[in-house]
Amino acid sequence: MTQAAVPSLLERIKGLAKSWIEVASSAKSGETLSFAPDLPEDDLDRLRPQLRGCLDGKGGEVSARARAAALGREYLSLSAEGRRRFLKLVADEFGPDPEAVDQAIAALQQAPADKRAGVEQRLREVLEPPRLRLLTQFNALPEGVKFLVDLRAELAGMAKGDAGLRALENDLKGLLSAWFDVGFLELRRLTWASPANVLEKLIAYEAVHTIQGWDDLKNRLDSDRRLYGFFHPRMPAEPLIFVEVALVQGLSGDIQQLLDLNAPAGNPDTADTAIFYSINNAQRGLNGISFGNFLIKRVVEELTREFKNLKNFATLSPIPGFCPWLESRLAEGEAGLLSGIEHRALAQISNGLTAKGSLKALLADPAWVADDHLAETLRGPLMRLAARYLAEERKSGVRALDPVAHFHLSNGARIERINWRADTSAKGLSQSCAMMVNYLYKLDDIEANHETYAGKGKVVISSAVKTLLKG
Amino acid sequence: MTQAAVPSLLERIKGLAKSWIEVASSAKSGETLSFAPDLPEDDLDRLRPQLRGCLDGKGGEVSARARAAALGREYLSLSAEGRRRFLKLVADEFGPDPEAVDQAIAALQQAPADKRAGVEQRLREVLEPPRLRLLTQFNALPEGVKFLVDLRAELAGMAKGDAGLRALENDLKGLLSAWFDVGFLELRRLTWASPANVLEKLIAYEAVHTIQGWDDLKNRLDSDRRLYGFFHPRMPAEPLIFVEVALVQGLSGDIQQLLDLNAPAGNPDTADTAIFYSINNAQRGLNGISFGNFLIKRVVEELTREFKNLKNFATLSPIPGFCPWLESRLAEGEAGLLSGIEHRALAQISNGLTAKGSLKALLADPAWVADDHLAETLRGPLMRLAARYLAEERKSGVRALDPVAHFHLSNGARIERINWRADTSAKGLSQSCAMMVNYLYKLDDIEANHETYAGKGKVVISSAVKTLLKG
Amino acid sequence: MTQAAVPSLLERIKGLAKSWIEVASSAKSGETLSFAPDLPEDDLDRLRPQLRGCLDGKGGEVSARARAAALGREYLSLSAEGRRRFLKLVADEFGPDPEAVDQAIAALQQAPADKRAGVEQRLREVLEPPRLRLLTQFNALPEGVKFLVDLRAELAGMAKGDAGLRALENDLKGLLSAWFDVGFLELRRLTWASPANVLEKLIAYEAVHTIQGWDDLKNRLDSDRRLYGFFHPRMPAEPLIFVEVALVQGLSGDIQQLLDLNAPAGNPDTADTAIFYSINNAQRGLNGISFGNFLIKRVVEELTREFKNLKNFATLSPIPGFCPWLESRLAEGEAGLLSGIEHRALAQISNGLTAKGSLKALLADPAWVADDHLAETLRGPLMRLAARYLAEERKSGVRALDPVAHFHLSNGARIERINWRADTSAKGLSQSCAMMVNYLYKLDDIEANHETYAGKGKVVISSAVKTLLKG
Amino acid sequence: MTQAAVPSLLERIKGLAKSWIEVASSAKSGETLSFAPDLPEDDLDRLRPQLRGCLDGKGGEVSARARAAALGREYLSLSAEGRRRFLKLVADEFGPDPEAVDQAIAALQQAPADKRAGVEQRLREVLEPPRLRLLTQFNALPEGVKFLVDLRAELAGMAKGDAGLRALENDLKGLLSAWFDVGFLELRRLTWASPANVLEKLIAYEAVHTIQGWDDLKNRLDSDRRLYGFFHPRMPAEPLIFVEVALVQGLSGDIQQLLDLNAPAGNPDTADTAIFYSINNAQRGLNGISFGNFLIKRVVEELTREFKNLKNFATLSPIPGFCPWLESRLAEGEAGLLSGIEHRALAQISNGLTAKGSLKALLADPAWVADDHLAETLRGPLMRLAARYLAEERKSGVRALDPVAHFHLSNGARIERINWRADTSAKGLSQSCAMMVNYLYKLDDIEANHETYAGKGKVVISSAVKTLLKG
Questions:
Q1: Which of C412, C400, C440 has the alpha carbon at shortest distance from C253?
Q2: Distance between CA atoms of D365 and D370, rounded to whole angstroms?
Q3: Which of D3, D15, D223 sits opposite B15 (nearest CB)?
Q4: What Cα–Cα distance (Å) separates residue A110 from each residue in B114, B180, D52?
Q5: Which of A317, A350, A358, A432 is catalytic?
Q6: Cβ C62–D293 below 8 Å, yes or no?
Q7: pTM for the full model?
Q8: Cα-based distances in Å from D273 to B470, D209, D243, D304, D319
Q9: Which of D278, D317, D350, D432 is catalytic?
Q10: What pLDDT is attached to residue C32?
Q11: Nearest-neighbour CA in chain A from B2: distance (Å)
């Protein structure tokens, strides 16, 4: 969005502290790299010894870092193709030394049991590719950690079908996993008094319920709201993941109401329920390195400490997979999906609208959601189908098909309530037929719920949802 | 020292935020561990499933961390023997799965070239021992990083002759190397306005020239001094390494003068020379993870920015290996060490003191250093021998025998000046015959000096030291 | 503006730390005040003893403060009329004790010379009205200082023609003058990383060149801009005065260009000129307590330190009084204002436009500014008239008639350049016929310029402006 | 004390930011003041116009401040005599203009009632002496506020018998009262992680129970202790007043125990009592500007929030006036002080010691406190006399004679318990015959107690103390 356009990393790094860069250029005076954007063959030939120079230990570690920083800057100035060629070189020519690997394997195969630990370690060492050390050195860039996080996001896009790039991406994942260990993350509460350059990231990164601008953001930071994120000490202006919470009376079942700019703020001190209405991973480059469950746990702790009257912790979540699933089921025919009575009701109501009176036909026109009469007729069957989708549909036979359901169920929540016409935005309509779910985190049951789901593969649901399923 | 006794980690952790611990105990209610200090066999049997529980993924990552934190606390309450048994269990029973390793090796040996990268990575993964994941989880302790740093220091002591413990110690080194990458360290200047709990660590950790108390410390933080350290964001009260600098006119050649509490502070704005008179690694658990050269480079940058008149950067360093080396040479006879004239001079002066008039006999009584006449006679031969020791004696034929000399020479310094009666403390006397060295860092020559030493194995010395060598 | 609506003080205080309030209510349990909004007579009767209670010393100072805080809260809940009545009571019934004043006067009139100092002081003490002590106690409110600043702004509106309220307003001015002594103010640079709740105040308070929203603001905080403000430690989110600076090459003569969101940022490190293009007093309640000249001085210091290439410090300022002045002159006839040639030129160009061809008639239609031909004809006379207005027109015969000119001239600036079509906004057009002025602060001349203007009453102008005057 | 010698203000200011000074010297180039230390007559003559220059408005406010800063620096370099002469000049020659005062008085005497407010204000204005504006300008010094606080302390010493200096000191008190309004003070908790330069001030300023060094200090900051102080934003390293608290079970009656370095720390979470065992005003220059009662109130709030089990808040206080009072009573004869039985007991026990066996004679030798038998005999009468002194002896017939008792009683405390042999230090012995008092702050009774004491002049005591009085 233009309003709060986040500067690209390149722009930011250009303007930043240049201490390492300066060291680099002073160290290797005269020599400027300035590659062509697409990094043609002869630039590759000039790049190769530079990369070697970062690893050979001549000139000392300090110079190596400085050189790596200079290369990182070069990388940022390349075109997409140039970057791919740069990374390909790193991936393919800086892997483990095959001979050393073979020797270490031979040693392992001959090692007596009581020496095995040491020999295994030796093998692990020679398997550690020099390209990993190269990547680590980019940490010397002023925003080096962010550089590597973004690099992994780029690599993920390029790596398909290329074992070398995939390996490089994997190396990077390992490195970032160590660096982003949850023990290093800081929980920070963001408020309207937080730095604007951090707040604009929220506007840019919020993907569940788009933030419409600074007024919308300010409203989400009002006295009856809380917004928490995890941050890394070396990326202080970049949230890694953040969650938005509303402090209310009873379960909230309507996102429009929650986000209404004109609604007055409630009194948080008397609130009995904390509604987690949006949780966003903000860094694509950290995919697969999870901290969502830690975040929820920590936020529950914080809220409990601050608000003595809080009793319930629940989400107000979308059902992102429902419509796609429903469509594919409808494509197979509606017989098993609706009861006879429902069929007749739909046929009747859609008389003037469509020849077929089918659910598929009715849903095709998004206007249904604004038509009270029509919506009322659809309510019964859609709520039941949503309950069925959430509670019974599985992926690989084990985990809940819906990804959001899976996330909360593994964290120990239960499916508490399905809310009708809870998100009538275009996205809500096309993903979830405008429904939303409350997942309830009951502190005393979290452990048991988790066991039931993760251990025994059973989904925990409330009696209200059970009733829906029967209906 | 009692004055500023640093609380043990155990004490500190006891009093700290208990959030994880509480989660742990709530998660596993009822169950308290409370092992006997020596961790007898049946306690080991209770520990084993606990450790497994941290790894099996049941109960979720959050609980696993909490459980690890509880185990970490238990560990701290054990005796030395109990700790050894605890770590031995971790080392021996949580190594890589041999079968998985063998399979991955077989797969590698059959892999076609273009798939090798992926298969290598698979092998690396199975070689990554579960015990490493266990150790990582201790990061959830309130001072988890310090816990692991101290743990490695303990392990280093225990590991001798035990391949398992050595492997564990090595795993930990790898983990800490990633976490303590120099890109994560903060350079902090410490002043008299710094927190007392950080300053007391300086008193405790200074090993080159012991800090005698708070007055001595305050004097070293005066307006003509600078003290910089590297810190890790998760160990904010623990310096990793620190350097003490005096801003003076010309090279300082006398440590007594520099540390004199009654000497008035100089004017730092007119100083032309920064003397690095003490550099200390503060964490034994980070041995082998070096950042000394980075520190010096960064401090030179800072000082250059702050003081426009600075021209020279030099150390005032001990020669810790000189006396041991000299003794072993003297034991072989003094013939090659002294000239005839020197011999006679010594014989003459020691007439009343000793029958033999040998250097060895003269040095045996530390009173020589206070005897101006005697000292003057010894000055010539000892200065020459020190120059020879520093410039010519090698370890494994390559690096300078003296460890301090080696450190500075690899960083690109040159041996500038040897200072007579520069440190007459008991330690200075017994290590270096009271001499000290200035290593000079000339900004324009650092790179070349480094190459000369690290590349060609030649020690760079000033003309004054050359003259000494000839003498 | 709605986008960044600043919460009213009342709203903010409601949600804030209640420590004093709680003490108050616990101290005086049971008793709630809750006055009617217009503060009718019997509420006044209840208020009177409460105010006395704040002063009589019974219950101790702590309770007095708490009680004052409670009264402050009441005040904020009153209507405009209620507030007036509240303040009238304070003003009229809590003045100095006339008897005590008379006695002290008598004592002074009889005092011998060497005792006079003490007796004068006694008189000053009895003249210090109790209402001042009352006001001081409102400082106990969570945002007490801001409360009093806003109170003075309110009083200024009410006080006209009411000696009592005017005296109260004056008391408050004295108190705030002591509290806002420039020695207590902090110079803070605001950037895009500053708290959003501070930045939104800039949007709300900028009155010279309205900030259109967050994008406009972000542009004014770009790398080639600086924004500094003075803050008081007890009003940390409220700028008192702030100045916006652009770092450019040469004098800027066009505000449109400076504020263009699409213009690329310049390189501040090579800039030779700092343009102060907007300076705003943000708190009406601090009228008459000046710190503008301190701000400019401090900002010049900061910029000089940061940017080594800066040579010139100048403003780009409106001429707010020009059009009103011109209109009143035109009303008197145009004879003395235009030369014969100019008259003919205007007559010619306005042929089809207006019968009279007068300057007055031409300026009446703001479209002239966009008509290149017409504008070019007007340029000569208007520039000359502006120069005459700035350099020659005086208020009370001494100070420059234009308030902005007076401000900068007293600070030691000189009128450097008048810029044509420099601000074509509606406001620029109606105030200054779209012209703007550069006032130049030449560091070496500031003192002398100040003397020339403040001492001798002469306006310092550049040779270019002199030429205009002659033209 | 040498260990933590606090640098003098002069030393500190010398090394500090010189921005104002530089402005000053650049403003008035060439002209250096450099007065002789004793400020002889011709230096006074040079000083006079400088002081005038700070007030006449020529050169602008910024220059005036800069000039004042330069004069402040000169002041600090003068001898005691020079300083007195400097201040005398300021006091005597920069008072109110007598003519203007007389005119304003005449105007007041003729003013109609409804104009009186304005005319009074005018009179107040002309009574405001220029010297006050001069003093205010010293706030421009880098540590200007501290400068003025220290200046008042100096003035207090000089002012005796000099109406002019006394008036100046009074002006300063008024200024400081406005600046140090309790609304501006920050409550800060000091811990072992606080800056060393702040902590050393505690060592220097603690006057009740001397802090023996850094170990003693660290012990007073242990986990079962709290230390709070008030700070001013412009004197961030200088506590204004601070209080030391121990968290214990039941009332503490023995200061030796509380301060024992070897005693283990208690568990603060289970403590039911907070003992305020030392409260110190740290700035002599703020005498008469009280914030002690605010501090206690705020600390009680903080502690209540942090520790849920706290029920009692009490002091452990010295009885500084007891021994002087007792001595003067004993000088009048012991008849009324001791009962017949007590007399005989004393006579019996002191048989071998003294001819007279009088209390006076027994107390003359401080060894009594270590003699269990003798002490036991003295216990009864001394405890009773202490109770009588505290509860019944008055100053001017109203307030408790003992200053510490008066302070706590006016704050709403009650005399709870007198503790025998509670402070056997030399000071405790000579002030209080080694006794100490617990003053109890019962939250519900504070208001009523205060009224009883301040309103009705009655001292509130516990039943235990009542019993003592009867005994």
A1: C440
A2: 11
A3: D223
A4: 28, 35, 96
A5: A317
A6: yes
A7: 0.89
A8: 77, 20, 15, 11, 21
A9: D317
A10: 62
A11: 33
Q: Does domain D322-470 have CATH number 3.40.630.150?
A: yes
Nearest by CB to D3, from B15, B193, B214: name it.
B214
Instruction: Give helix then strand counts, H and E, for chain B.
Output: 22, 9
| The predicted structure's pLDDT at residue D358 | 77
**D317 belongs to the catalytic site:** yes
Q: Do B59 and A95 touch (CB under 8 A)?
A: no
Q: Which two tokens stand for residue D244?
A: 């030391």
Q: Which chains touch A (3 or more CB pairs under 8 A)?
A: B, C
Helix ranges (H only) for C60-115 are 60-76, 80-93, 98-110
B377 to chain A, minimum CA–CA distance in Å?
42
Find the helix packing angle between C41-55 and C130-137, rounded to 10°: 90
Q: Please determine whether the domains at D183-315 and D322-470 fall in the same fold group of CATH.
A: yes
Domain residue ranges of chain C, discontinuous segments joined by + = 9-94+129-179, 183-315, 322-470
Question: For A183-315, CATH number?
Answer: 3.40.630.180
Strand partners, D314: D275, D440
Residues in chain A with pLDDT < 70? 1-32, 57-59, 350-357
Q: Is A408 a catalytic residue?
A: yes
Per-window interface: B 225-254 vs A, CB < 8 A: 233-234
pLDDT of B15 reads 35
Per-residue pLDDT tens over the stretch A299-352: 999 999 999 899 999 999 999 999 999 999 988 877 778 877 887 887 777 665
Are residues D120 and C184, on separate chains, in Cβ contact within 8 Å? Answer: no
Residues in chain C: 471
Query: pLDDT tens digits, residue range A403-435?
Result: 999 989 988 899 999 999 999 999 999 999 999
Q: List, for residues C210-250, the tens digit of each pLDDT value.
A: 999 999 999 999 999 999 999 999 999 999 999 999 999 99
Mean pLDDT, residues B14-43: 59
Chain B residues near residue A233 by CB distance under 8 angstroms: 184, 233-234
Separation CA D256–CA D216 (nearest Å): 12
Q: Which fold has domain C9-94+129-179?
A: Butyryl-CoA Dehydrogenase, subunit A; domain 3 (1.20.140)
d(CA B191, CA B244): 11
Spatial CB neighbours of C243, under 8 Å, sequence gap ≥ 6: C227, C228, C229, C276, C278, C279, C280, C295, C296, C299
Indicate the residue of C199, C223, C237 with minimum beta-carbon distance to A196: C199
Say if the Cβ atoms of D120 and C96 lie within 8 Å. Answer: yes
Cα separation of the two ends of chain D: 44
**Cβ–Cβ of C117/D61 closer than 8 Å?**
no
Distance from CA of B288 to the nearest CA of D (A): 30
Query: Minimal CA–CA distance to C130: which of C102, C179, C167, C155?
Result: C167
Among partner residues D197, D213, D214, which is closest to B193 by beta-carbon distance? D197
- Cα(A408)–Cα(A293) distance, integer angstroms: 9
Burial of A241 by CB count in 10 Å (0-12 exposed, 13-18 middle, 19+ buried)? buried
Closest residue of D to C57, CA-based?
D454
Contact A297 B136 (CB under 8 A): no
